[in-house]
Amino acid sequence: MADGDEDLPRDAKIVKSLLKSMGVENYEPRVIHQFLELWYRYVVDVLTDAQVYSEHASKAAIDCDDVKLAIQSKVNFSFSQPPAREVLLELARNRNKIPLPKSIAGPGFPLPPEEDTLISPNYQLAIPKKQTAQASEETEENEESVDPTNPPQEGRTDLTQQTPHRVSFPLAAKRPK
After folding, report:
1. Which of 47, 54, 82, 130 has the fewest CB atoms below 10 angstroms from its CB?
2. Where is this protein found (predicted)?
3. Helix or strand run (H / E) with residue 32
4. What's the CA gap between 138 and 155, in Å, rounded?
5. β-pairing verdict for 125-127 and 165-167
């Protein structure tokens, strides 16, 4: 055995040899501890059940029959056999008598709304508003009457208060055929 095997308890060596006999060569060291925990939990459950059966039979100690009964009850509750093929076929016939509901979405896969997808427009262009003819004339008049040493404050605020229009374009435009 390997160098680290001397430090392992007997149960861990047994789990390691079981893994090796099943062809498992590479595994994390935690796997042995997990199997040991599962093994101990199973043994405790079986022995606890065997003790209950022994007490029910008014026995002083647990015997082999109690352990066999506990294991059998574990197997019966843990593993169940699938129903017979005839039963499954009858269930399938009954279920398939009911037709499927009509599809509301139409052909193809139902897709989420366009605004919830990653292909929706994801950018905006800022287009400044064009000044009207009257506003541009007022601006020209104000510029002519402006004192170069003291520019008016109103002209500056008018220019900064212009808000641009926001326009978005879809990425995939539908082309007429």
Report:
1. 82
2. Nucleus
3. helix 30-56
4. 10
5. antiparallel
Amino acid 81: pLDDT: 79
pLDDT digits (tens, 9 = 90+) for 143-167: 555 555 555 555 444 444 555 566 6
- How many beta carbons lie within 10 A of that of residue 32, not counting itself? 20
Q: Where are the beta strands (DSSP E) in 102-174?
A: 125-127, 165-167
| pLDDT mean over 117-121 | 67
**Angle, to 10 degrees, between the axis of helix 153-160 and the axis of helix 133-144?**
150
Between CA 120 and CA 117 the distance in angstroms is 6
Are the C-beta atoms of residues 119 and 172 closer than 8 Å to each other?
yes
31 Cβ contact partners less than 8 Å away, ≥ 6 residues apart: 19
CA distance 32 to 40: 12
Which tokens in the block code for residue 154? Answer: 């109103």
- Tell me the two tokens of residue 36: 């040991």
Q: And the tokens for 169?
A: 């374009």
